[in-house]
């Protein structure tokens, strides 16, 4: 009966949307390193910890007012709540129960309730004894009155900052990566201090006219000397003692500089990787972004345009100079060879990237990157640059959605400029949105008021819009004249007034931006209204 | 008829030459050596071989006389700057279009007297950006203005005595009568800028005004003919 109740409850939790979304919310808030919510929460907690520590210092000499005590209580409650929530998010008990229940049902054996309870408890105990959770606990416990003796542990609150500062974690990781060197050096240092302690203790006994009364004095002197601090409260008086001091100082200098060099070297080696990983982390925070392979002249122009549009993008280039240039401009950049599968994959071709742009100066590489990207993501948009006319076909074969030819386009532009300067400047102005009039497409959404209407009915003239044509893949329109095939759709130029709009058609209109926006709003609103009525 | 001289052999110059309407302008390609000239001549263009550093050579191909437009398509910026300076010194009114490799050279070319600077990398970057942000519009324009499709955008200047003189833009009804869309008007009374035909303002057409229209090539041709033919009073409707 109890088992059934537990299993029923576990199923309930599994299916409860509210429970799942609450847990996801707290996961994003507390643990998910890619969530923006967590970074806000971390900043808030850092401020709170600092404030509470200042309050503790203030409390040493002053009596706290009521409001300050209340603040302290609030802080502690928040710490306790955070501790418990982290414990809750740490593991999913209902999943453990259901997993074992289903296994037991399949094998036709009784449900091992105690074993499952043990596993669940084990997971939570794992959490309690994890280093960061221990720090959390030690930050909370001393506030409990009977445990006032543990006040010194209040300083552990500062250690809580470890949780919220990523850079501290990185520092710890770098140190950890040099464990072998540091342990070796530590052992050597320990041995040195031991020899010096014994030596000075033997030479500098008060009986010999020295100042070292006991072994602790000797140890203290050795540490102060090896660190080259040398307070001078205990100084060697005998010749033997002085020789030990000289040797210790010289070796101590060597050890110290060795220690510094190990840490610096570790940072140098890890820095690039750290920077790269922070690039990836930032990238994964974006819902959508564009991958630009190659930061040459064309790549730079594209990046500048995208930045103006406030679109997110990442640059992949393996040339040092280009990477430095991109960094100087403040762009996200990955210093790698974009033709490798792993690089494009890590950059997120399947995780939020909406388009890949291959703009290296070498067609061979562009073909290769295009092929790699298409292989990794069959649906993504790939725009590729072809420097030679005869490579255009190869790029399309490799899977490019569009191919751009810089020199051909420039040639075309020159010809248009000479032939039709006014028309040409007008078009350029429209596309670049330099003039106040823009060209846009408006979608005929199903259920919107313009669906099923004819062109005359929309009265575009009244709306101060100019209709150039309609893009549609709907076969119902094919009887109309003036149709031009564009990829797998048709562009119907200058449609007649009885042209009836169907769902999914795109109106190509020209007009002032606000006129277009207003019309688009009306279409959207009418669709929502109709949807609600239904 | 416009006469255009093109300097420098590249993908770009070939593309520009093939796009220019040979009925409206005569093109002469200026090569550095016979091999270059022969390659272009194969495609059916008039070619000449001169040393562009020599002013007399430049005069000999018609700069300062019948050449209206000059394209400087040398891959190196300093060649283009030198050619621009030389040509501008010979002819003050010539239109000079130059390409630029290093963006820093753009100012130098302008100072040397070029009218229009083309940065192929910039154009390509913009184009890619347009494709990303407005794929539908870019597709249409590629297939019309820039494309080899039948759909074109053109500008038509209204000559003196044309039937369209003293007509209001709203009375034109080009979309119903000619299957053309009026994109905009350059109303000389108001200056040289283009006013888009989005029914904001009525323009009365006079001689010298320019209509920018979009439509199938043959309809544009027919309309153009109609606008220009009326000079001697024989207005024919088609």
What's the short story on this structure?
The complex is a heterodimer of chains A (534) and B (238). Chain A has 534 residues and is an alpha/beta fold.
Please characterize this protein's 3D structure:
The complex is a heterodimer of chains A (534) and B (238). Chain A has four domains: 2-164, no CATH class; 179-270, Helix Hairpins, CATH 1.10.287.70; 288-409, Rossmann fold (3-Layer(aba) Sandwich); 437-533, Regulator of K+ conductance, C-terminal domain (Alpha-Beta Plaits, 2-Layer Sandwich). The radius of gyration of chain A is 35 Å and the shape is extended. Chain A is 60% helix and 11% strand. In chain A, helix 17 links the parallel strand 5 and strand 6. Chain A has 21 helices and eleven strands. Chain A has 534 residues and is of the alpha/beta class. Chain B has 238 residues and is α/β, with parallel strands linked by helices. Chain B folds into two domains: 2-119, 3-Layer(aba) Sandwich (Rossmann fold), CATH 3.40.50.720; 151-232, Regulator of K+ conductance, C-terminal domain (Alpha-Beta Plaits). Chain B is built from ten helices and ten strands. Chain B has helices spanning 11-19, 34-41, 55-60, 77-90, 105-112, 120-133, 135-143, 169-172, 174-177, 217-229; strands at 2-7, 25-31, 46-49, 69-72, 95-99, 116-118, 151-157, 181-186, 194-196, 210-216. Chain B has a six-stranded parallel sheet. Chain B has a four-stranded antiparallel sheet with strand order 7-10-8-9. In chain B, a hairpin with a 7-residue loop joins strand 8 (181-186) and strand 9. The longest helix of chain B is centred in the middle third of the chain and has 14 residues, at 77-90. Chain B is globular. Residues 233-238 of chain B have low confidence and may be disordered. The chains are: A alpha/beta (534), B alpha/beta (238). The interface between A and B is large, with 74 and 71 residues.
């Amino acid at each position: 009966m109890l088992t059934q109740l537990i299993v029923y409850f576990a199923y309930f939790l599994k299916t409860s949307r509210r429970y799942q979304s609450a847990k996801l919310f707290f996961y994003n808030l507390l643990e998910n390193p890619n969530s923006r919510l967590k970074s806000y929460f971390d900043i808030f907690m850092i401020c709170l910890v600092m404030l509470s520590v200042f309050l503790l210092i203030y409390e040493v000499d002053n009596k706290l007012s009521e409001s300050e005590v209340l603040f302290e209580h609030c802080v502690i409650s928040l710490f306790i709540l955070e501790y418990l929530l982290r414990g809750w998010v740490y593991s999913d008990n209902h999943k453990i129960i259901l997993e074992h229940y289903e296994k037991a049902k399949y094998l036709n054996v009784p449900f091992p309730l105690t074993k499952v309870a043990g596993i669940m408890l084990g997971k939570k105990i794992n959490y309690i004894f994890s280093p960061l959770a221990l720090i959390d606990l030690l930050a909370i416990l001393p506030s409990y009155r009977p445990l006032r003796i543990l006040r010194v542990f209040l300083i552990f609150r500062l250690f809580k900052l470890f949780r919220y500062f990523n850079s501290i974690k990185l520092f710890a990781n770098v140190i950890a990566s040099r464990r072998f060197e540091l342990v070796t050096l530590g052992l050597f240092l320990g041995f040195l201090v031991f020899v010096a302690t014994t030596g000075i203790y033997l030479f500098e006994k008060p009986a010999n006219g020295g100042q070292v009364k006991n072994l602790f004095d000797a140890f203290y002197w050795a540490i102060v000397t090896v660190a080259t601090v040398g307070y001078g409260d205990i100084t060697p008086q005998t010749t033997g003692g002085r020789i030990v001091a000289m040797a210790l100082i010289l070796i101590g200098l060597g050890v110290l500089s060795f220690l510094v060099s190990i840490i610096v070297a570790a940072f140098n080696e890890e820095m690039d990787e750290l920077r790269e990983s922070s690039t990836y982390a930032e990238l994964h925070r974006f819902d959508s972004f564009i991958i630009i392979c190659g930061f040459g002249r064309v790549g730079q122009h594209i990046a500048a345009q995208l930045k103006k549009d406030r679109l997110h993008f990442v640059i992949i280039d393996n040339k040092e100079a280009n990477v430095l240039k991109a960094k100087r401009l403040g762009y996200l950049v990955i210093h790698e060879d974009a033709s490798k599968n792993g690089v494009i994959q890590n950059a997120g071709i399947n995780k939020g990237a909406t388009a890949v742009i291959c703009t290296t100066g070498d067609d061979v590489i562009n073909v290769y990157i295009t092929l790699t990207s298409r292989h990794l993501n069959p649906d993504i948009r790939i725009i590729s640059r072809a420097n030679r006319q005869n490579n255009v076909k190869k790029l399309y074969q490799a899977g490019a959605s569009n191919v751009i030819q810089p020199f051909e386009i420039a040639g075309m532009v020159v010809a248009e400029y000479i032939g039709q300067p006014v028309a040409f400047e007008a078009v350029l102005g429209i596309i670049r949105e330099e003039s106040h009039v823009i060209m846009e497409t408006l979608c005929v959404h199903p259920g919107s008021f313009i669906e099923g209407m004819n062109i005359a009915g929309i009265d575009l003239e009244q709306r101060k819009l100019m209709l150039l044509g309609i893009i549609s893949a709907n076969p119902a329109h094919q009887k109309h004249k003036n149709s031009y095939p564009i990829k797998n759709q048709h562009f119907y130029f200058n449609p007649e007034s009885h042209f009836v709009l169907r769902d999914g058609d795109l109106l190509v209109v020209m007009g002032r931006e606000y006129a277009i926006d207003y019309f688009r709003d009306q279409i959207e609103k009418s669709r929502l209204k109709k949807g609600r009525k239904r | 008829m416009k006469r255009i001289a093109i300097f420098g052999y590249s993908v770009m110059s070939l593309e520009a030459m093939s796009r220019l309407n040979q009925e409206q302008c005569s093109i002469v390609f200026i090569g550095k050596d016979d091999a270059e000239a022969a390659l272009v001549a194969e495609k059916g263009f008039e070619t000449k071989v001169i040393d562009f550093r020599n002013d007399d050579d430049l005069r000999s191909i018609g700069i300062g006389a019948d050449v209206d437009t000059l394209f400087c398509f040398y891959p190196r910026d300093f060649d283009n700057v030198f050619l621009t300076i030389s040509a501008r010194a010979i002819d003050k009114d010539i239109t000079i279009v130059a390409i630029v490799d290093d963006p820093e050279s753009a100012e130098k070319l302008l100072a040397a007297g070029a009218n229009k600077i083309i940065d192929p990398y910039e154009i390509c970057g913009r184009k890619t950006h347009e494709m990303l942000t407005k794929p539908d519009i870019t597709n249409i324009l590629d297939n019309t203005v820039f494309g080899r499709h039948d759909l074109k955008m053109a500008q038509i200047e209204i000559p003196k005595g044309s039937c369209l003189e003293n007509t209001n833009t709203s009375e034109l009804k080009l979309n119903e009568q000619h299957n053309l869309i009026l994109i905009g008007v350059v109303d000389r009374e108001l200056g040289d800028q283009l006013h888009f035909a989005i029914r904001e303002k009525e323009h009365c057409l006079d001689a010298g005004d320019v209509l920018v229209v979009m439509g199938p090539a043959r309809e544009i041709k027919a309309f153009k003919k109609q606008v220009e033919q009326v000079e001697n009073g024989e207005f024919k409707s088609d």
